[in-house]
């Protein structure tokens, strides 16, 4: 059976996440995986499971989620790019389709992933077109956020930044990059409206990026000191750190293989 790799972009606002969920009160909960599988089933007449590189949560977006599925031989020559473009809802787009080796796995073959998180630094308003994609925080002390972020780079036990809901025993992860899009902010008279942070790691825990952003924003608001971050990591308790950042600011940005 041919294995197909796809790259998927989506607005997560009206979905309960990537992964299929059990129905509630006989009503299915919309998921991105479910919409993709619905298209494949409609065309092939059989259930084809789609495997994603990661399970984005309810309300989280993606610029380049990667997934794969195995097709019956007779369907391999279908123009799946055209099929997905025609049949998917407007808030999901398959941006690339390619046949890959059977050993490729969208999740287990990934070497690194990166997410972006977008903050809105104005107090007065949020542009309506940007509202679903930003967390309105108002002005922040970016230098304090940078100092806090420096403590998180490298290999650490990130148990403090893992939300409940996954059965794993190893909470050690390696963050290779935490950076933002405004390197010259210190020389500007005003800050940009949007501050976009990128977090790259070999792997992430459940809601790890949103929890990290909650801490960075708390530092940017002078609610906690950047120098408290090592103690937060050492606590290994979710309750030790500030609240989780909203889902709408987060987007899966890139998966590297």
Description:
The protein has 2 domains: 3-100, Pseudouridine synthase I, catalytic domain, N-terminal subdomain (Alpha-Beta Plaits, 2-Layer Sandwich), CATH 3.30.70.580; 112-256, Alpha-Beta Plaits. The chain contains 5 helices and 10 strands; from the N terminus they run E-H-E-E-H-E-E-E-H-E-E-E-H-H-E. It has helices spanning 32-44, 80-87, 142-150, 208-220, 229-235; strands spanning 3-10, 51-52, 61-70, 92-100, 112-120, 135-136, 154-157, 172-180, 194-201, 250-256. Helix 3 crosses helix 4. The mean pLDDT is 94.
Task: Summarize the SSE layout with pairings.
Blueprint: E1 3-10, H1 32-44, E2 51-52, E3 61-70, H2 80-87, E4 92-100, E5 112-120, E6 135-136, H3 142-150, E7 154-157, E8 172-180, E9 194-201, H4 208-220, H5 229-235, E10 250-256
Parallel strand pairs: 3-10, 5-6
Antiparallel strand pairs: 1-3, 1-4, 2-3, 5-9, 5-10, 7-8, 8-9
Helix content: 10-25%
CATH topology of the largest domain: Alpha-Beta Plaits
* Form type: globular
How many strands, which pairing sense, and closed or not: the largest β-sheet?
Answer: 10 strands, mixed
Which structural class is indicated by helix and strand composition?
A: alpha+beta
User: What is the typical, i.e. mean, pLDDT?
Assistant: 94
- Gap between N and C termini, in Å? 22 Å
Rounded to an integer in angstroms, the radius of gyration calculated over CA atoms is 20 Å
CATH class call of the largest domain: Alpha Beta
Spans of 5+ residues with little confidence (pLDDT < 50)? none
Strand content: 25-35%
Catalytic activity: uridine(38/39/40) in tRNA = pseudouridine(38/39/40) in tRNA
Binding site for substrate: 115
Protein name: tRNA pseudouridine synthase A
Pfam family, one: PseudoU_synth_1
